[in-house]
Every structure is written in structure tokens, then in C-alpha cells.
Design goal:
Shape: globular
Strand content: 15-25%
Number of helices: 10
Distance between the termini: 31 Å
Number of strands: 12
Radius of gyration: 18 Å
Length: about 290
């Protein structure tokens, strides 16, 4: 029985799946679940993950379009605002800048750490932020000045060494600073019902799906303490519906099949909403 890379606990096989979300290969990926910390982790990580992040993984909207997208996801800044209102903010894995534009407009001095070089160039040109290009955020954080806030929106699950990134973030924060992390929830209702068909497995891009209690304990050991935890913010509610929709479709499905799956998934999500919105049963959590 393999040992968990995060805590060394015994980890039996939990599920096997392919790249169901994008269909970029026929490789079968094996996920194991640690009996000690509960983390669901990918055993056979590809040596080169770049082919699983194709060019269409990122959009390149202009500043006006980014503001439109940012306004539609204003809940992100609302989650951070009670704990940080200005100063230096570092975002790890900004994608094409939906939150970065919110942070810039809110008056933060923004630095982003992103693995895609073209996206770094786009964010610097579009938003005027500083962009550090690397897939090892822990190294970049060690070289940056202290941050009042660090955010990771659905990034930790992609990292080869999530604890290194967590420790580096804790070390970089100013006293009283805030670290905000949003990740898929391996203890979600959808994960338990759908198993290998749960879209938030997202093999092989998601390497670690970490339970909230495990993340909170590891953060405590890094000198942080949890001040807020939710699996029912607007983002989590969106990922609930997404999970049921995507579980019913296949990559490159026909338009009509896609629309039927979307309608059915929306209906299922509506029926299950009273259950998914209680406790920590949502498809994602923010801490």
C-alpha cells in the first residue's frame, strides 16, 4: 500500500479514471485516499503536465472584459475584504486575471505568480501588475517582499508540493496577514455519489484534493489559524451545479447532447441544493 506524499499515511486505491474533462489522453490515472489525513492524491503523475494545459486553457480578455468577468464573481473580493483592505497582495495562479482585476481596482499593490509565460505577459500588459513566471510558487514567494494578503483560487490542488507552497505563503505574510485558499472538496456530496465521474477530480491536473480539516491543521503548524471556512459561497454553489452537469457529458460531445446534460445537471443540482448547502458538503470550500 502506497504512502501518502503529504503525511506518510497508508493509502489504498480510491478510484481510477481518465481525463474525462478534456479528453487529452487515454491514460488511466490512479487516485489513492490516505486513511490518516483523508487526502485524495494522484499516484501516477505525468512527468510533463504541460500537454494537459493546452493553449485554450487560458483566455486573454482585455481590461474591460476582465472587469465584466470580475463583477460577475465579486463574491471573491467579498470573502477577502473583511480581513484585508489594501497593501501588497500576491495571487498564486491568477489564470487570466478575474480576481487580479478586482484586486487592482480595490487598490491593492498586486503581484501574480503564474506558470504560463504568455499569460504573465498578458497580465502585465493588461493590468500593470508584476508577474513572476514559475510553476514553483514557493521559490517565488521566498524572493518577494512581505504580503498583506496571499490568495490561491483553485490552485493548491494543481501543485506538486502543496505544503511547500503553504509554508512559503505563511513565511511571506506580514504579521496579521491573510491567506485565502479555495479548493475542491473531496468530502463533497458529489464526490461521494459520483466517484470517478466527479468532474472536480479533473485528472491529471488535480494532484491533491485535501479535506478542510487537514488543510486547517497543516496551516496551524505553519503558524496560521483559520478564521473563516465555507463550502456555501457563490463559487461553491456554481461548482455544485457544474459537477452534476459535467458528470453527464463526455469531452467533445455534440451540442445537443451537451445542452441536455446541462439541463439535467441543473435540475439535479436544484433538487440536491438543500443537502449540498449544509455543513461542508459543497463541491468546493474556501478557507
Amino acid at each position: 500500500m502506497s504512502a501518502c506524499p503529504l503525511c506518510g499515511g497508508a493509502s489504498p486505491v480510491a478510484l481510477r479514471t481518465r481525463d474525462r474533462n478534456r479528453g487529452l489522453s487515454d491514460v488511466v490515472f490512479t487516485y489513492r485516499r490516505c486513511v490518516a489525513c483523508g487526502t485524495l492524491w494522484l499516484e501516477n503523475v505525468p512527468a510533463d503536465l504541460a500537454p494537459y494545459y493546452p493553449d485554450d486553457y487560458y483566455a486573454r480578455p482585455d481590461r474591460a472584459r476582465l472587469r465584466e468577468l470580475g463583477a460577475a464573481e465579486s463574491y471573491r473580493m467579498a470573502l477577502l475584504a473583511p480581513y484585508a483592505t489594501g497593501g501588497r497582495l500576491t495571487e498564486i495562479g491568477p489564470g487570466f486575471g478575474i480576481f487580479a482585476v478586482q484586486a487592482v481596482d480595490a487598490g491593492f499593490d498586486v503581484t501574480v505568480i503564474e506558470m504560463d509565460r504568455a499569460m504573465c505577459e498578458h497580465l502585465e500588459a493588461t493590468l500593470g501588475v508584476r508577474a513572476v513566471c514559475t510553476d514553483e510558487p514557493e521559490r517565488a514567494l521566498a524572493d518577494l517582499p512581505p504580503s498583506g494578503a496571499i490568495v490561491m483560487w483553485h490552485v493548491l490542488e494543481h501543485l506538486r508540493d502543496p505544503w511547500a507552497a503553504l509554508d512559503a505563503a505563511a513565511a511571506n505574510l506580514e504579521p496579521g496577514g491573510t491567506l485565502l485558499i479555495a479548493v475542491p472538496n473531496p468530502e463533497a456530496l458529489g464526490a461521494r455519489v459520483l466517484g470517478a465521474r466527479w468532474p472536480h477530480i479533473d485528472a491529471p491536473r488535480h494532484l491533491f484534493l485535501i479535506p478542510a480539516r487537514t488543510l486547517a491543521e497543516r496551516a496551524r503548524r505553519a503558524g496560521l489559524h483559520a478564521v473563516h471556512l465555507t463550502a456555501d459561497d457563490p463559487g461553491a454553489r456554481h461548482w455544485n451545479a457544474f459537477a452534476w452537469h459535467y458528470a453527464l457529458r463526455r469531452p467533445q460531445s455534440r451540442w445537443i447532447t451537451h445542452r441536455l446534460a446541462q439541463a439535467a445537471g441543473t435540475a439535479i443540482a436544484a433538487v440536491l441544493a438543500p443537502v449540498e448547502r449544509r455543513g461542508l458538503r459543497g463541491a468546493a470550500y474556501t478557507m
